[in-house]
Amino acid sequence: MTSTETRPALAGFHHFSATVSDVEASAAWYERVFGMSRVPAPFPHYGDPDSGYGVILLDPGTGLCIGLHHHRDNTGEPADERRCGLDHVAFQVPSRGDLEAWASWLDALGIAHSGVNDTDDPMPYSALIFRDPDNVQLEIFHMDAPG
User: Which ranges does the record mark as transmembrane (predicted)?
Assistant: First the structure.
């Protein structure tokens, strides 16, 4: 096979970045909810460093990163998955029991959520849904491995 017939390698999911209305408030929220550590230096926007910056949060156990971005021209509208852009982000957990633990964790933090939802349509999975301070929908997700 030639290189154009085979998809290049992927190693996993690295990060997601969201534009937020208040970088400091959002960083504090994500640090509290996900227990992530903030990378000390802000990151300028690639190709347009004068437009704003990003703050990066890192989970050292998994390597997952969350970028929270300030844009100079942001009008502060809340996120809405019904418009073009990000619909939601889902974080995988090893077992359904972990979803119950997350529901308890969010309860302890006073964060509203859907409770654990189980479905078989169109395939079996379970999800816990909640929102960040800018209304970005987040999910904690479990699906048994096929087979």
Answer: none
